[in-house]
UniProtKB/TrEMBL annotation:
Species for this entry: Hyaloscypha bicolor E
Region annotated Disordered, chain positions: 305-331
Source organism, top-level taxon: Eukaryota
Entry protein name: SGNH hydrolase
UniProt-listed InterPro entries: SGNH_hydro_sf
Length: 448
């Protein structure tokens, strides 16, 4: 008892010292980085958390983009992590566009807003690999329950904007002067939640996973309310329309993080008594749990009606007034229910088919589904394009923060240890584009 009480001041001192060291490290990185869009963003991260508390103050000038939006056409609004972030840092020209950008081309969208974020490449290896979490507060509360937690990790959680922060940044923008014909939202979350939760005791990681999924639907309700109240409200809708636009969201299934190159090469060694095998097992289970719960919750959320509109105490027209009115009834905006709908894309199927095709081709085999009978599109599905130097043959290769960039990024399934290469991102954008053009939503599948 007395020993526990005496350890509390020491723990507070260690926590305070760790946070101070983290802030000092950030300032040091900021001062040493070259002038670029990346360094500017990182500077605003460090300053924003101490000056105005805004984790998204370093974003691009979306206000200027929003002023040009509106009118006929499709607007794509993107929330998520590095898998949909369109930021290209110095030396990363071969990275290519995000799959959301390819999607925009496929559906001929007239405008696009991207709020996704990534860990700046220059921050590694000063900081371990990380990315956008669904909820920073849920993530912090979850890892603080583990015996493996260290104070430094908690201090790092505020580096990137979570889903709530990204959505609030979008809601805070001025509304377009003329609303778009339709707005489609993209959500890419969960990868880094599972990546981190897998190193915790499984019950703790499971609880964090479940809470993160609940947070996604909480934030979707907030986004839906903004959509129906502001963007497509009675004040902005043409009353000649008899149908309301759908609130449509694109959500990809989660890909197992243990299948990425960085899981083995860049993941910090687990402290005892945890092990690589235990964490890998946790990640596989949590990925499966995430996808199973998500598909069930998505289906339930789509059919759950919005809360009833507040009652209006206006005098109702009499039967005689209705009979004498020769004009046909036109539903008002309040009479129209804006339906929720989801494009639920099976991302793991595409990636696993590519990996299996490559493996079977290497062995001269094929399976009953036809995999192995074709020709692999990639030189490697294991090593990323951005890799450590091997041997002396480095002529003509770009040095990227101590890593080398391959000469043919299109030939690699992965761009770096945690992100996809340009060729497969184009394939994803095309497949989701086909879904959007064919309106292959959950509702449409249920009706057919």
């Amino acid at each position: 008892m007395f020993a526990g009480a005496g350890s509390m001041p020491a723990l507070r001192k260690r926590l305070g010292a760790s946070i101070v060291l983290t802030l000092l490290s950030l300032v040091t990185i900021v001062l040493l980085l070259p002038t670029s869009r990346v360094s500017t963003r990182l500077q605003k991260i460090a300053l924003g958390t101490t000056i105005d508390g805004s984790l998204w103050s370093w974003s691009s000038s979306y206000e200027e983009v929003e002023e040009d939006l509106g009118g006929e056409g499709t607007r794509l609004v993107i929330f998520g992590d590095s898998w949909v972030d369109d930021t290209i840092e110095n030396g990363q020209g071969g990275k290519g566009k995000s799959w959301a950008d390819y999607l925009c081309e496929e559906i001929n969208c007239t405008s696009r807003l991207n709020f996704a974020a990534s860990q700046p490449f220059e921050s590694w290896p000063s900081f371990p690999p990380t990315g956008v979490m669904t909820s920073n507060s849920i993530h912090e509360a979850t890892i603080s329950k583990s015996k493996y937690t260290i104070a430094l990790e908690i201090a790092e959680l505020s580096l990137l904007p979570d889903l709530a922060t990204q959505i609030q940044s979008y809601i805070a923008l001025p509304l377009p002067t003329q609303r778009p014909t339709e707005t489609i939202f993209v959500l890419s979350f969960g990868f880094w939640d599972v990546y981190d939760f897998s190193r915790l005791d499984y019950p703790i990681g499971q609880n964090g996973t479940d809470n993160s999924i609940k947070e996604i639907f909480k934030q979707l309700d907030i986004l839906y309310n903004h959509f129906t109240t502001n963007l497509y409200s009675a004040n902005t809708t043409d009353h000649r329309e008899t149908t309301a636009p759908s609130f449509r969201v694109i959500i990809p299934r989660l890909f197992d993080p243990t299948l990425l190159p960085g899981w083995l090469t860049l993941r910090p060694s687990p402290p005892s008594p945890s092990s690589v095998a235990e964490q890998q097992k946790n990640a596989v289970y949590l990925t499966e749990r995430w996808n199973n719960i998500m598909v069930n919750q998505v289906a339930q959320w789509v059919v759950t009606p919005p809360p009833p509109a507040p009652q209006k105490f206006e005098q109702s027209p009499s039967d005689e007034d209705i009979r004498n009115n020769s004009e046909p009834f036109q539903p008002t905006e309040e009479d129209r229910i804006i339906q929720k709908d989801v494009f639920y894309y099976d991302l793991p199927k595409l990636l696993l088919d590519i990996i299996i095709e490559h493996q079977l081709e290497d062995e001269g085999l094929s399976d009953a589904s036809g995999l192995g009978k074709g020709e692999s599109l990639f030189e490697s599905v294991y090593q990323p394009c951005v890799h450590e130097a091997e041997g002396d043959d480095t002529d003509g290769l770009i040095d990227l923060n101590g890593m080398l960039v391959c000469k043919g990024p299109e030939d690699y399934l992965f761009w770096d240890s945690f992100n996809l290469g340009p060729a497969v991102k184009g394939m994803i954008g095309k497949e989701i584009g086909d879904m959007v053009r064919g309106n292959k939503t959950l509702r449409n599948q249920w009706e057919h």
